[in-house]
Design a protein that fits this description.
Shape: globular
Order of helices and strands: HEEEEEEEEEEEEEEEEEEEH
CATH superfamily of the largest domain: Immunoglobulins
CATH architecture of the largest domain: Sandwich
Strand order of the largest sheet: 2-9-8-4-5
Distance between the termini: 97 Å
Largest sheet: 5 strands, mixed
Oligomer: single chain
Number of strands: 19
Structural class: alpha+beta
């Protein structure tokens, strides 16, 4: 069954419904994968869920944000501040191929966006060393995107433009792309750099989550400085009186 027309239709539906996610991810059977689903802030307080199946009208609920999952295979979390809910699928089999990121609409049709898992027996056609990366503010991270076939390479952030050339900028963060393994280096990181990204090679994407931790402040807050000053002068006053009495 050809997936291309379906992906085109799903892409149009996704634009109309204001949900953005990957279109196709290569993953090895037995592994797990986390998929970010970006939604419009109008849906901030709505129920989000993952539906499994090629056809929307016959897909089945896998996991929902307002219900405890009856299976350890699926999990879901919702970051309302960033407007992204994340679904995780564990122990992937060759049957785990067609899914929908969806938002529940009480007074109308639920909005959704289709994505496909291309399940391989051997190594995936596009993969990263790790999906979760942590760094410090002002530092840098390097992501190795391994891909089997020659294709146009991109580094993207959901809902924003992609860096496609050898070097560029992504949300004020310097990005350098090197060929062969397709190495992405993000430098001069800021806390705003935290979030989901993905490597793209041809029609495949691989999501990567970057967490940038804020550096401890080296400057003292005014309230803390005031407290220390009060303690210092109180100690000085007590010491002075003790000396005079002696």
């Amino acid at each position: 069954m050809s997936f291309i027309p379906h992906l085109i239709l799903a892409g149009l539906i996704g634009i109309h419904c204001k949900i953005i996610t990957v279109s196709r991810v290569s993953v090895k059977a037995g592994d797990s994968i986390s998929i970010p689903c970006l939604y419009d802030q109008d849906y901030r307080n709505h129920v989000k869920y993952l539906c499994q199946g090629y056809y929307w009208h016959s897909c089945s609920y896998a996991v929902k944000t307002n219900k405890k999952s009856g299976s350890e295979k699926f999990s879901i979390s919702d970051d309302k501040n960033q407007g992204i809910f994340t679904v995780t699928i564990d122990k992937i089999t060759h049957k785990d191929t067609d899914f929908w990121c969806a938002v529940e609409i009480v007074s109308g049709a639920d909005v959704r966006h289709y994505f496909q898992l291309s399940v391989t027996t051997g190594m995936s056609n596009l993969y990263v060393d790790q999906q979760e990366i942590t760094a410090s503010e002002g530092g840098s991270v390097t992501i190795n995107c391994h891909y089997k076939y020659s294709a146009e390479r991109k580094w993207c952030r959901p809902g924003r433009t992609c860096v496609t050339n050898q070097s560029g900028s992504k949300d004020g963060t310097a990005v350098t792309i090197i060929s062969n393994v397709f190495t992405v280096t993000m430098s001069k990181l800021r806390t705003e750099s935290s979030g989901w990204y993905w490597c793209a090679a041809g029609d495949l994407q691989m999501p990567v989550h970057v967490t940038v931790n804020e550096l401890p402040s080296t400057t003292m807050s005014p309230s803390t400085a005031s407290k220390i000053q009060t303690i210092f002068y109180s100690h000085k006053l007590v010491t002075s009186k003790w000396t005079q009495q002696k």
